[in-house]
Amino acid sequence: MARRHLTPPDWSTAALSAMARGGVAAVSVNALAGELGATRGSFYWHFKDRDALLTAALEMWEQDDTAALISELADIADPRQRLTALFTTALGQESINGLETAIVAHADHPAVAPVLRRVTERRIAYLTDLYTDLGLAPAPARRQAVIAYAAYLGWLELRRSAGDIVPEVAASGTTATAALEHLITELTRSATHRAEPE
Q1: Among candidates 198, 175, 4, 187, which has minimal Cα distance to 84?
Q2: Residues 149-182: pLDDT tens digits?
Q3: For 83, which of 13, 28, 67, 138 is 20 to 30 Å away at the CA?
């Protein structure tokens, strides 16, 4: 049986899945080749080394989970609806379960740090713009963006580490839907009902 021709995104997706399961250390060329039914030669056709794969995988995550989502939301004119769509998507079913928390857990890794920094800066800036569009002045909008992003990261970490005892953070279900709606209401309340001093 002929082997399928693997592309760099195939390797990158496999690397991200491995990272979600076991962190950066789980991204092993030999293990990934075995999972993909490929040879090490196939890997080296596309990548110089493991670090190059890590960088490509993380940049793919950056593009898919940040840049592409922001682009998709651009067509929603109402900022409250945009915020609702953002959190509904971001806290919905993850494309790779546990990936976000695994990446954050390795924030000091040399391959992870620069990409995670860019992603964090872009996401906070986007949220700040959203809260500004909702009526907050720049300084309170930035504070609210930080609170919203912290809530997002905490939600995903609870899902990963204690999902069985906190069903509200599940990706789907009646309880999870009600909890997500409550979170979004709380995250928009300050911008829509009051103005904070600078």
Answers
A1: 187
A2: 999 999 999 998 998 999 999 888 889 889 988 9
A3: 13
How far apart CA 161 and CA 141 sit, in angstroms, is 30
Phi-psi region of 187 (alpha: psi -120 to 50; beta: other; left: phi over 0): alpha
Angle, in degrees to the nearest 10, between helices 112-133 and 50-62: 10
Question: Based on the structure, what is the number of domains in the chain?
Answer: 1
Does residue 2 form part of some domain? no
Tokens standing for residue 180? 């997500």
Q: What is the pTM of this model?
A: 0.89
Burial of residue 16 (number of CB atoms within 10 Å: 0-12, 13-18, 19+): buried
Residue 3 lies in a domain: no
Q: For residue range 119-151, what is the model confidence (pLDDT) as tens digits?
A: 999 999 999 999 999 999 999 999 999 999 999
Would you say residue 71 lies in a domain? yes
Which two tokens mark 6? 């693997």
CATH of the domain at 121: 1.10.357.10
In terms of residue numbers, what domain contains 59? 8-193
Cα dist. 33→10, 46, 80, 103, 190 in Å?
Answer: 11, 13, 45, 22, 50
Side chain identity, residue 79: P
